[in-house]
Automatic annotation (TrEMBL):
GO terms for molecular function: symporter activity. One of its GO terms (biological process) is carboxylic acid transport. Gene3D superfamilies: MFS general substrate transporter like domains. Keywords: Cell membrane, Cytoplasmic vesicle, Glycoprotein, Lysosome, Membrane, Symport, Synapse, Transmembrane, Transmembrane helix, Transport. Residues 27-454 form the Major facilitator superfamily (MFS) profile domain. It is found in: Basolateral cell membrane; Cytoplasmic vesicle, Secretory vesicle membrane; Cytoplasmic vesicle, Secretory vesicle, Synaptic vesicle membrane; Lysosome membrane. PANTHER family: GH23975P, SOLUTE CARRIER FAMILY 17. The keyword Nucleotide-binding does not apply. One of its GO terms (cellular component) is basolateral plasma membrane. It catalyses: L-aspartate(out) = L-aspartate(in); N-acetylneuraminate(in) + H(+)(in) = N-acetylneuraminate(out) + H(+)(out); D-glucuronate(out) + H(+)(out) = D-glucuronate(in) + H(+)(in); N-acetyl-L-aspartyl-L-glutamate(out) = N-acetyl-L-aspartyl-L-glutamate(in). This is Sialin. It comes from Culex pipiens pipiens (Northern house mosquito). Receptor for CM101, a polysaccharide produced by group B Streptococcus with antipathoangiogenic properties. It is a multi-pass membrane protein.
Length: 484
């Protein structure tokens, strides 16, 4: 059932939308949001802490003797490898995440992955003092644990999100990414200066453990498994998704269709191009602010959080507009995904180029903030697209997309570290120009290849499953729409 059809259904709950606790699917959304938030506090902390870990610190030794020491004497290249090591592990578990979710349940995999990350975050200071090799091993393992999260959350939404709420629910969940980034970037520098850089890892690791307990206590695999959901809400969700209650769902992934689909490849390329700039700024912006604009570690952390605060706000706007345009029949799903995604890419390229040309504190920070914030519209394009193309295979598709996107997270920080070995303004300008060029590649590919419609290879599998379960093809709701 498409967004227009599902908007005509009612969940039967006599309560305003802001009373989220009255609707079980919104409780799941909130906990997923908090999960993404703690996930990114744990992921981003090292990007800020590494500045404090490698800068000269004044230490008094008695008799008025003052020494300038570094906790870790790491070169720019070594720091680049440390920051990118997370993505080595992150790459490994993306595609297997969908298979694991089908076997053990998507919610179980999400919770376990972030629980493991929390424990490893608590162990990060010990790993760092053990040597750079142990720190890299720790970050690789964290990457493996977090790698299952995004694909499995797409599987969660394939069971919980009605089509007419899909963009809003998915993007609100992922707004937690930016709230977590803001919290981490703001607090890590402050905590490092007030107490120690180690304290930040202990704080965010503990928060991850608390979330782990709450997730397993509240969230279930699907509406059918949740004993606290109302009958009307359960029927509303299942009917809007075209799911027959009580019929066992056997997942079958049309691999040939997935691997030969231009629409899937458009999503893959868009994910890589968006991730190049996103991860590069996420890991390198504190260093950029210090090297090119001469900010101190405490202020660089706070300023680094500004673009992600803007993106968190933009996500809410983009998600609402994407659903609104579809429900009102102003734009087709394909047009929404394509226009939002490509508007994002061309705007990001323009502002990254402008920021590089100016390279003065206030104007450059404004340009970076606008560029990163506009990434929200890309997320309402490629970030939701897998659920449009094939809801039952969305986890696998997003696993592939994130695998390729993770390559950007591996390559970009290393390239930036190599290009900025002398820490000059011209070196950082080149980093920005490369990012703008990558955005334009994503613009072209997504514009010509993207689709927002249920794909024929997905329809074929679902129709066959329906017949096997005693239904007929005529009753199949998720029919293929005519693309623009």
């Amino acid at each position: 059932m498409d967004a227009v059809q599902s908007s005509k259904l009612c969940d039967g709950i006599d309560a305003p939308r802001w009373m989220f606790w009255k609707r079980r699917r919104y409780v799941v959304v909130l906990l997923a949001f908090l999960g993404c938030m703690v996930m990114y506090t744990m992921r981003v902390t090292l990007s800020i802490a590494i500045v404090a870990m490698t800068e000269n610190r004044t230490v008094s030794r008695g008799n008025d003797t003052v020494e300038y020491v570094q906790a870790f004497d790491w070169s720019s290249s070594v720091r680049g490898h440390v920051l990118s090591s997370f993505f080595y592990g992150y790459l490994v578990t993306q595609v297997p995440a969908g298979v694991l979710a089908n076997r053990f349940g998507a919610t179980n995999i999400v919770g376990t992955g972030l629980g493991i990350t929390a424990v490893l975050t608590l162990l990060t200071p010990l790993s760092a003092y053990g040597g750079v090799g142990w720190l890299i091993v720790n970050r690789v393992l964290q990457g493996m644990a977090q790698g299952v999260t995004i694909p499995c959350l797409h599987i969660v939404w394939s069971k919980w999100a009605p089509p007419n709420e899909r963009s809003r629910m998915v993007l609100f969940t992922f707004a937690g990414v930016f709230v977590g980034t803001i919290i981490s970037m703001t607090l890590t520098g402050f905590v490092a200066k007030l107490w120690s850089w180690e304290s930040a890892f202990y704080i965010f690791g503990t928060a991850g453990c608390v979330w782990f307990v709450a997730w397993f206590a509240v969230v279930r695999q699907s509406p059918e498994c949740d004993r606290f959901i109302t009958l009307r809400e359960k029927e509303f969700i299942l009917k809007s998704l075209g799911i027959v209650e009580g019929v066992p769902e056997k997942i079958e992934h049309p691999w040939k269709g997935i691997l030969t689909s231009k629409a899937v490849y458009a999503t893959i390329v868009a994910g890589f191009c968006q991730s190049w700039g996103f991860y590069n700024m996420l890991t390198q912006m504190p260093s950029f602010l210090r090297d090119a604009l001469h900010f101190e570690v405490q202020s660089s952390g706070s300023i680094s959080a500004l673009p992600y605060a803007a993106m968190g706000i933009a996500l809410s706007i983009a998600g609402y507009l994407a659903d609104w345009f579809q429900i009102r029949n102003i734009l087709t799903t394909t047009q929404v995904r394509r226009n939002f995604n490509c508007l994002s890419f061309i705007t990001q390229a323009a502002f990254m180029t402008t920021g590089a040309l100016i390279l003065r504190a206030v104007p450059t920070i404004i340009c970076i903030t606008v560029a990163i914030a506009m990434g929200a519209f890309a997320w309402s394009g490629y970030g939701v697209n897998a659920l449009d193309l094939s809801p039952t295979s969305a986890g696998v598709i997003m696993g592939i997309v994130n695998s390729v996107s993770t390559l950007a997270g591996i390559i970009a920080p290393v390239v930036t570290g190599l290009l900025t070995s002398n820490k000059t303004a011209d070196e950082w300008r080149l980093v920005f120009y490369i990012t703008a060029g990558v955005n334009m590649v994503g613009f072209v590919v997504y514009w010509f290849w993207a689709s927002g419609e249920l794909q024929p290879w997905s329809i074929e599998v679902q129709e066959r499953k329906r017949v096997e379960n005693g239904g007929d093809k005529k009753g199949f709701d998720n029919r293929l729409s005519v693309e623009d």
